[in-house]
């Protein structure tokens, strides 16, 4: 493989293209929000829309550092098991960081901060191949995964927070079609199999149920049987 091919490879993957689509959907939504919508509460308390956007920006900056870690292989986690590899205190720190980052900043500043973080992430990934290993030493020696799986989880995180913001401002919850297969691959990995077709779940329903943002109906519970106990798959 030539150096030029290596530079282009991650950007040509299904995961990267899906990330671009879901990020662009988020940008389009945020650019059209009036000022009062940025102060709306989300289903990620205590974060309002402004703080949630700051969290997304911060997560891009944080994950970007994983790509420069250059760990020794092989990968020890994947796009699914990554979600079970975070320390117990990680969610609390995430909320605190988002609140601190957004404090005193205008919606315009937070929005621009997200765009800058995404642009830097995209620039970094331009020189990364899909199977290059990434790591976060602060999460332990076993937190090593492929760059492809890092990008896949950008799709899930941005996608689910896109749904959170849509819900907060009273819009229909919609995911870009390109993001659904990537998100499903992560949730299926956590479940250990694909959910029964009889459920008829689209990408949005599966994402909401899988991340604890919606409850199983009685019918869904009955169809899932013993698998119902696995939900939510992550929170």
List keywords for this structure.
disordered N terminus, mainly alpha, 9 helices, 235 residues, Four Helix Bundle (Hemerythrin (Met), subunit A), two-stranded antiparallel sheet
Provide an overview of this structure.
By secondary structure, this protein is mainly α. The protein has one domain (3-230): Four Helix Bundle (Hemerythrin (Met), subunit A). 53% of the residues lie in helices and 3% in strands. It is built from nine helices and two strands; from the N terminus they run H-H-H-H-H-E-E-H-H-H-H. A two-stranded antiparallel ribbon has the order 1-2. The chain is globular.
Mean pLDDT: 93
Helix fraction, binned, reads 40-55%
What are the low-pLDDT stretches, counting only 5+ consecutive residues below 50? 1-7
Instruction: State which percent range the strand residues make up.
Output: under 5%
> Helical stretch count?
9
Summarize the biggest pleated sheet: 2 strands, antiparallel
The CATH architecture is: Up-down Bundle
Taking all Cα atoms into account, the compactness measure Rg is 18 Å
Instruction: For the largest sheet, list the strands in their spatial order.
Output: 1-2
- Envelope shape: globular
Q: What's the number of domains?
A: 1
Superfamily (CATH H level) name: dinb family like domain
Q: How many strands appear in the DSSP assignment?
A: 2
Here the CATH topology equals Four Helix Bundle (Hemerythrin (Met), subunit A)
Order of helices and strands: HHHHHEEHHHH
Distance between the termini: 39 Å
**How would you classify the helix and strand content by structural class?**
mainly alpha
CATH hierarchy class name: Mainly Alpha
């Amino acid at each position: 493989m030539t150096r030029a091919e290596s530079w282009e490879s991650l950007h040509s993957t299904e995961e990267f293209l899906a990330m671009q689509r879901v990020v662009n959907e988020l940008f389009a939504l945020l650019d059209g929000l009036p000022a009062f919508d940025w102060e709306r509460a989300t289903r990620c308390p205590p974060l309002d829309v402004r703080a949630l956007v700051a969290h997304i920006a911060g997560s891009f900056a944080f994950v970007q550092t994983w790509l420069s870690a250059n760990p020794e292989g092989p990968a020890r986690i994947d796009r699914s098991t990554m979600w079970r590899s975070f320390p117990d205190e990680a969610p609390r720190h995430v909320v605190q960081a988002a609140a601190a980052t957004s404090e005193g900043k205008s919606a315009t500043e937070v929005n621009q901060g997200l765009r800058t973080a995404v642009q830097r992430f995209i620039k970094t990934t331009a020189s990364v191949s899909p199977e290059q290993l990434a790591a976060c030493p602060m999460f332990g020696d076993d937190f090593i995964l492929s760059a492809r799986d890092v990008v896949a989880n950008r799709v899930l995180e941005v996608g689910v927070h896109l749904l959170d913001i849509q819900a907060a401002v009273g819009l229909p919850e919609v995911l870009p079609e390109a993001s659904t297969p990537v998100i499903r691959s992560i949730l299926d990995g956590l479940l250990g199999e694909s959910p029964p077709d009889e459920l008829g779940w689209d990408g949005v329903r599966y994402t909401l149920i899988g991340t604890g943002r919606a409850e199983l109906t009685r019918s869904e519970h009955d169809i899932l049987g013993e698998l119902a106990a696995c939900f939510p798959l992550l929170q």
